[in-house]
Design goal:
The chain is α+β, with helices and mostly antiparallel strands. The chain has one domain. The protein is built from 7 helices and 6 strands. Strands 1, 2, 3, 4, 5 and 6 form a 6-stranded antiparallel sheet that branches. β3 and β4 form a beta hairpin. The longest helix is centred in the middle third of the chain and has 30 residues.
Length: 209
Amino acid sequence: MSRFYEEKLPEGYSQALVVDAADRKTVLFMRRAASLLSAALFCVFFFLFAFPRIREIRAGFSLFKCVVFVLSYYLYIVLHELTHGLVYKLLTKRKLAFGFQPPVAYCGVPDLYLYRITSLLSAAAPFTVFTVFFAVLFFLLNDPFSKSLVLALLALHAAGCTGDLYGAGLLLFKYTDPASLRKDTGPKQIYYTKDPIRPDETKQQEGGK
């Protein structure tokens, strides 16, 4: 037994929720949430940063930097999933599953049942790491056009973390029992909770002491 995972589903657990990234309703919900989040951030960034410096940004326009921006975004997607994988690898030492199932890229540990702390650390890792990275990069750059591209990457990054934030929210506010388990196949996350102990079972346990 590991404090980070179980190899088999222990007795006394029931399936509580399935979140399937390939499900049409889930995809629609995540797309809407991501679109709203990215649109809100773009508006905030535009009015707080870009609008007051619009002339400087136009003057610093560079096609090369735009190409770098596009390539950086695709590189970020890969690094995002590798960050999930790094946490899983450190905590489980097991083989990981990487892939792309439109519209999502994924990383999972399909053969294990992960305890809440493992799932929470993996879900939060990319959002935490890259939010800090893009924020530091923004303050290190001097060119307003480059800064605006970094803010765009930050907005896209936040939108790309919608699924992770949803999963983290479930673990933080709904499945709060440290004994809760989650099976992460990549596209699909299955949550398991401990069955409540019935009064007759409590009496049996007390009688056996």
